[in-house]
Fold:
Amino acid sequence: MKLTRTINLVVQVLAVALQIANYTLPVVPASAKPTVSAIAGIIQLIIGVAAHGLNPDGTPATLPYTKS
Structure:
């Protein structure tokens, strides 16, 4: 599976929603909230760094992007 712009966008939006829900909803104990937030942030960091070197279609950014 290629890391396309759509996959990147969906993962980032879901991670932001998770972080907001983590602090506003009483689902996770208060002592675990920072850990859940850190894990979501690490996931966002990994996906963001991986997507940084890619074109929107998932090809390496070293290649020219041609919209199909």
User: Anything to note?
Assistant: The first helix runs from residue 5 to 24. The two ends are 18 Å apart (CA to CA). DSSP finds two helices and no strands in the chain.
